[in-house]
Recover the amino acids of this structure.
């Protein structure tokens, strides 16, 4: 336990995100009491080492709805404090820090910051990973972008992927994956701006299977109404 406490108290950002994880996990199953005790030990250690924990505790009472928590999480990811490439080593599950990022994305005031972060991570080179691992990481980042789209940040997300498509510097399998995921979540009617950005992707036979029901339905709706 001592090692965990010291790790969480390594800095302000690690403390905030660590306590947020404890808060979210303390309501789950029989481990809740143990996690609450761990959270208390972390707070005691932080106070003993002269960390100002009161504002953090107050913010955490409202979970990630508060800017302090969200800003800390985004700052950690921006500085690679939580290496997104580690997702290549976590088959079958969404990394916790990215799950928290999805939670933050439910608040509109952070959409721009999150998108900037995701774009930077998406364009980062990860030469230490095998090709299939790189694609896996990028698909998980695309999942975050689609989630951001679902949360209302539609046009900036689609505009960015349209730019990736136009530049021809992104693996077509990733563009295909993005198109499929978006078609799974969007419903008619669509805005004119969305159609102008997204239809060229759906119309490219290299990217999509034109026999797909979702693809056909989208194209028919666009042709009939725009």
């Amino acid at each position: 336990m001592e090692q965990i406490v010291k790790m969480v108290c390594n800095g302000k950002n690690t403390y905030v995100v660590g306590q947020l994880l404890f808060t979210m996990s303390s309501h789950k199953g029989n481990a809740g009491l143990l996690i609450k005790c761990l959270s208390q030990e972390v707070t005691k250690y932080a106070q003993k080492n002269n960390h100002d924990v009161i504002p953090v505790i107050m913010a955490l009472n409202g979970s990630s709805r508060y800017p302090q928590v969200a800003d800390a999480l985004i700052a950690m990811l921006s500085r690679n404090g939580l290496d997104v490439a580690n997702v290549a080593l976590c088959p079958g599950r969404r990394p916790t820090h990215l799950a928290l990022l999805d939670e933050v994305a439910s608040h509109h005031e952070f959409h721009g910051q999150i998108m900037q972060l995701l774009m930077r991570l998406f364009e980062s080179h990860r030469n230490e990973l095998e090709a299939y691992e790189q694609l896996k990481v990028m698909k998980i980042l695309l999942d975050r972008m689609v989630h951001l789209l679902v949360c209302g940040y539609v046009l900036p997300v689609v505009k960015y992927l349209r730019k990736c498509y136009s530049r021809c510097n992104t693996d077509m399998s990733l563009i295909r994956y993005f198109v499929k995921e978006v078609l799974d979540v969007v419903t008619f009617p669509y805005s004119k701006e969305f159609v102008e950005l997204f239809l060229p992707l759906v119309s490219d036979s290299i990217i999509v299977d034109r026999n797909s029901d979702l693809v056909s339905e989208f194209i028919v709706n666009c042709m009939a109404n725009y």
The chain has three domains: 1-63, 67-152, 154-225. The chain has a mean pLDDT of 80. Residues 67-152 form one domain. Residues 202 and 226 are 15 Å apart (CA to CA).
